[in-house]
Amino acid sequence: MDVVEIEGNNLTLEEVKAVSNGSLEASLSSGSRERMQASRKAVEDVLDSGEVVYGINTGFGALSSVSIGVGELEDLQSNLVRSHACGVGERMDPEDVLMMMIIRANSLAKGVSGIRPGVVDLILGMVNSRIAPVVPRIGSLGASGDLAPLSHMTMGMMGEGDCLVDVGGEWISMHSRTALENAELKPIMLQAKEGLSLINGTSQMCAYLTQTVLNMETLCLAADVSVACSVEAIRGSHKPFDRRIHASRPQVGQSISAARIIELLSDSDIAISHEDCDRVQDAYSFRCSPQVHGPVIDLVREARRILEIEINSATDNPLVFIEEDGASIISGGNFHGQNLALASDSIAIACHELASISERRINQILDPNWSAQKAFLAGNEGLESGLMIVQYVAAAIISELQILSSPATISNVPVSMGKEDHASMGATGTYRSLKSTILLSQVLANEFICSIEALEAIEESPGLGVSKVVNWVRTHVDKLEGDRSMTNDCEQLSESILDGGLTGIFG
Questions:
Q1: What is the Rg, in whole angstroms, of the alpha carbon atoms belonging to the chain?
Q2: What b/e string do you get for 244-263 counting C-beta neighbours within 10 Å, with b at 16 or more?
């Protein structure tokens, strides 16, 4: 199996995903090991000197003014982890946990957190062995790091609590100590600062946002493909996608969207057949789709940029800097996840917009006034309802998306006796954005089902790209031959979209 070196600077979203799903292993680089050893020595020098430094020999948060004796420092770290491991709610998916762990390891590998290399070795050993501590999802405020989720992760490293272990593709629950022993790994005995370094970071937020961004890149393509199919399904105009229109408003995402759509529509017999029709303009949901999809593409590109910086950043506190004139240990606020929170809130809104415009196209495909076909594409109108409720489901999903798009960042609750008086709520936001991408995929799946059903009733051939999509959809969804439950069709097609089915066709 291929191995990616974890060194804190160059980890990609794709590598995070590959390590979490077991297709790639991870190891700590030699350069990171040296940097970590140097920063650890700086921490030990502080302990030897008796100097009082936050996070090393003090309490935490509002208790930071309390000095802790040398003989109690290991207990301090263990107590920190145990007390903070109080998350609630549904458990994180084990691969989400592994993703969180590899991101945490990469952050610590930068060598400015003051912990031993062996701590990261243990994280990577657990990830490579497919051992995921059981982590309740809810508990992080998106500031002071993802304290509760990362504490549950660290409990697993300490041999406490339960883990899920991938055994032949099935996740099996067992006590953490047993899981470690089976993998020939030893539980960690935390030393000064190490517990704080492990739990004080943005790793849960990054894990959810990584999946969100990767999903959105797939869904932006799927949304453009769905437009092309729907344009052909209503015999719509290709002119709004003309390169010259979009070159006159040179927004990058808009031009990308329009270029994709017009390429998919090339060599369309449907377009030739209605060159002289009296329809002047199509509805906004068709002709303005690049102007709606394009800003989402731009947004996702920016979110990737922010996230790739974040997963290669030191996000704990304090940080240890080794310089020519000695070491500096400085307290700051890199654990604050405002950047991730704002990005995720924006993506949740974007998911609502892409789904909303998709549902409008579904409506027109099912409306005889636009499609010139039977209502709801039913074979026997009245006796059969055809795809009527496919639109209803899309509309219901949009209501769900509207709720999820309410910004998490506006919900600030001061904690820790006012010491931590502003939180990003990014953990909530990033989870919501991930959930939103899944719902968006379901709306787009519903649009594909409707457009392909309509296309097959048109005698002329659609564009070459659209023809490929017709064949792809038909590998997942059978042609409508009388009324039937469409639940499995919609869900399977949605899953295939997120798994990159369209990306496999078009790149």
A1: 26
A2: ebbeeeeeebbbbbbebbbe
d(CA 16, CA 411): 29
> What is the spatial distance between Cα 352 and Cα 370, in angstroms, rounded to a whole number?
24
- Select which of 54, 284, 392, 431 is catalytic: 54
pLDDT(279) > 70: no
The pLDDT score that the predictor gives to residue 48 is 86
Distance CA 2, CA 31 (A): 19
pLDDT for res 53: 80
The amino acid occupying position 298 is D
CATH level 2 (architecture), domain 209-316+333-506: Up-down Bundle (1.20)
CATH of the domain spanning 3-201: 1.10.275.10
Structure tokens at 301: 């590109």
Residue 490 is encoded by which pair of tokens?
Answer: 């919609």
101: enclosing H helix or E strand: helix 94-108
431 catalytic per annotation? no
Distance, CA of 163 to chain centre: 23
What is the three-class DSSP state of 137? Answer: strand
Per-domain residue ranges for the chain? 3-201, 209-316+333-506
